[in-house]
Specification:
The chain is α/β, with parallel strands linked by helices. Helix content is about 35%, strand content about 25%. The chain has two domains: about 120 residues, CBS-domain (Roll), CATH 3.10.580; about 100 residues, CBS-domain (Roll).
Length: about 260
């Protein structure tokens, strides 16, 4: 396969946002496009990326509590979680790169932006030969009644991207950095800044979680899981056995198994 496929065969169109745009515009674009992160441009030059995680941190920061979400610009949340390749390079170069970076930017020979490659782009072409247990990670859980401020602290302190939400040991939902970013934006837009410290403590995980959550049985194949993730454009799927949570498969765990 590597003798026949090149980066240009798997790349998708680049999805960009200007550094001068508002973070709310970036979040809307991510949700509309189903992508994370976006490429940030300064004029026509790539200066970095902006992610849902970064926006969740900016919108949830007490330091920014007096600022309207409509006054925070993308430039304040720019990260450098990307690397670059050229379209005629062998597609297999993407495997180790996407095991480290969330996004691969594609330049032409004149260093102009012409494409991007995400984990999902690569999984449409390459699939691990591993079994489902080999690509299943330990799931991090949180109770449905836990407070949002505690969830955010665990996300920041422990670098956790998602929690499987449980109630009486049953999977009831999932919370990702996307849910937190959307919730913090709505909260900041609706609640006056002088009341935010008090009111945010009343928000619970069940108020922001995505539900119902799609799960797969432990007897499923890896192809089944990838097909579901691509069809529904989701980045993680909880795995259950006899109705109980046994782990989670993520795009990243699949890429690491290639």
């Amino acid at each position: 396969m590597s003798d026949e496929l090149f980066v240009k065969d798997v790349m998708s169109r680049p999805v960009t946002i200007a550094k001068s745009a508002l973070v709310t515009e970036a979040l809307d674009k991510m949700l509309d496009e189903g992508l994370d992160p976006l490429i940030v441009l300064n004029n026509s030059t790539v200066m970095g990326t902006v992610s849902r995680k970064g926006m969740a941190e900016k919108l949830g920061s007490r330091r920014n509590s007096a600022l309207s979400p409509n006054s925070i610009h993308v430039a304040a949340a720019v990260e450098e979680d990307f690397t670059t390749v050229y379209p005629d390079q062998d597609v297999e170069i993407l495997i180790p790169l996407l095991q480290v970076y969330k996004l691969v930017v594609v330049y032409d020979e004149d260093h102009r932006l012409i494409g991007q490659v995400t984990e999902q782009d690569l999984l449409k072409v390459y699939r691990p030969t591993a079994s489902l247990p080999e690509v299943t990670e330990k799931a991090t859980t949180i109770d449905v009644e836990e407070r949002l401020v505690h969830l955010r602290r665990r996300m920041i302190d422990d670098g956790i991207l998602r929690f499987i939400v449980t109630e009486h040991d049953q999977v009831t939902g999932i919370v990702t950095e996307t849910d937190v970013a959307v919730a913090m934006r709505k909260f900041r837009e609706l609640v006056d800044d002088k009341h935010q410290d008090h009111r945010i403590r009343n928000l619970l995980v069940k108020d922001i979680m995505s539900t119902p959550v799609m799960t797969v049985d432990a007897g499923s194949t890896v192809d089944d899981v990838i097909d579901l993730m691509i069809a529904k454009n989701i980045s993680a799927v909880p795995v259950t056995r006899d109705g109980c949570l046994s782990g989670v498969v993520t795009r990243n765990s699949l890429i690491r198994a290639l």
